[in-house]
Amino acid sequence: MFDMDVRLEDIDVVRERTGVSYSKAKEALEQANGSVVDAIIFIEKEQEKQEGVWTENINVKGSELLEKVKDIIKKGNATKIRVKKGEKVIVDIPITVGVVTTIFFPYLTLLASIIALAAEYTLQIEHPVQDTTGVSNSDIENKH
């Protein structure tokens, strides 16, 4: 590998889109010869290899947080939701717990959304990797 200058702005874009550390973003940019898009694709492919799960990052304002979480739960294609503020993980929710909380404790979710109104957060959503047949790894595991 060669030593190349990587712009901080490019590292920030890769980190914002993928949620990786500065060192991982820099490494991916070096692998991609400075191309931000290729670096993001490189990171996505690496994440897909890990434990049959891929992670999606969505930046949301506090006022949008609860609605976005409900939308993700309704779609039913996620296994875990992680709410982060900067690098700090605020809450890590297995989806089944999120469903129970949303259905049975609406006042708790309302309170959480009121507290979160002024801040900006990143939602990290873990999804099972789908194979070409459309059957996820978790579907296969649940049948055995």
Automatic annotation (TrEMBL):
Domain DUF4342: 53-126
Keyword Transmembrane: yes
Keywords: Membrane, Transmembrane, Transmembrane helix
Gene3D superfamilies assigned to the protein according to its UniProt record, in alphabetical order: DNA helicase RuvA subunit, C-terminal domain
Record-linked Pfam families: DUF4342
Listed CDD domains: UBA_NAC_like_bac (cd14360)
Top-level taxonomic group: Bacteria
Membrane-spanning parts: 89-119
Listed name of the protein: DUF4342 domain-containing protein
Gene source species: Caldanaerobius fijiensis DSM 17918
Lineage: Bacteria, Bacillati, Bacillota, Clostridia, Thermoanaerobacterales
